[in-house]
Amino acid sequence: MRPARDLLKPELVVADGAMGTYYAQSGPGDSSTCEEANLLRPDVIRGIHLRYREAGARLLRTNTFAAVSLTGPGQPDKLRRLVSSGFELAADCAGADMFVAADIGPAYALDDEQALAGNTLAVEAFLSCGADLFLFETFADPKEFLPLCRLIRQKSPDAVIACSFALSPDGLTRKGIQLEQLASQMEQEPDIDIWGLNCGIGPTHLARQVARLGARGKPLSLMPNSGYPRMENQRLVYGSEPDYFAREVAGLRQDRVRILGGCCGTSPRHIAALSAALARTQMPPRPFAAQAAPAPARPAKPSATPLADRLARGQFTVVCELDPPRDSRIEPLLDAARDLKSSGIDLITLADSPMARVKMDSAAAAIRVYRETNLPVLPHLCCRDRNANALRASLLALHSEGIRQVLAVTGDAIPESDRGFVKPVFNLNSIGLLQLIGQMNQDQFAGDPILA
Fold first, then answer.
1. Cβ-based neighbours of 20, under 8 Å, separated by 6 or more
2. Does the predicted TM-score (pTM) go above 0.90?
3. Residue 60 · residue 98 · CB < 8 Å
């Protein structure tokens, strides 16, 4: 294997493609997961690594992306074995002119403390194997892996640390962080040597995001999906032909780009086509921005809502809570709101299906009350019934209607009698929702934030 520091030299390196989706398509067909195959079917994983090598890949990622999520907090010995075997398999398949990256993915199935503990154990296992190149990929927030980078830097100062983020087509991570903010932070982060984008989007959308970056900066790693998935015969299938993938990804080549490879849906055929396209022609590269687009400016002082203004002045504030109706008849709620306004109430707060009993959506009810009474409203926003995308959508709707305050609520548990039919979400808790709102206040709501 080549030493990881060679990856910092100005040359383009072709990485491998997907492991998980390719294993699902070409693996043994049993119930074992991709990472478990390191122990149960090492011949299959070795064969996949070798096929990528034959396709022209000069960087192999260890088959350990979901090892921490798979083992959870209670199987440290199994996690060590998965990591060690994953590294050994990739290293055995790598030639003298190749790199091996210790691959670590997010563990969103675990809580933050468990994920950090598991990833710390994985990092230590990789270091004990002699890993000198680490790749944190498909993350949504730098804070999820930066403590691990500090650990690596302390124990192996010469290690090369790369990270990669998954974006939606509109340039946001699943936690609502914009590409420009990621770029600004990664360029200034001393423990990150290479950063980039992978997963989430196909080559064309990734190219549009890359065009927003400056032409100068740290080396980049770009590994898009082959395309977008669809369901066929109850299986997730990714689109795009290898030639299309190769043409689009080869067009990403620039002085800054150090690694080009593939993520979900790609196969050795995609990497072979990419290697051939890069070797065959000097394709006209897509331009970067003349300079990196600045991150949205954070307002020096948030705009005051009537509630925030009253509280800041120390004024006594009278708040009344109304429950949205159990049906679609909202007139009684509006009549009550009008009566409260005439009584001198300062603000109405609207609950979000308390006790997990279904009532009208609190955001919709708040919008109607605010439209028809012009009385400040404070809708509750509950994490129990919405994932991060749905919470973000509700916040966008509220903001568009002039509502500038919400109450973040984790939510009551689903009653035991309903649990066979109703499933809780809890993608975030109230603290996570506050963080999401804070992020949106810097991005979509910059200069006109929502108070939470």
1. 34, 65, 66, 264
2. no
3. yes
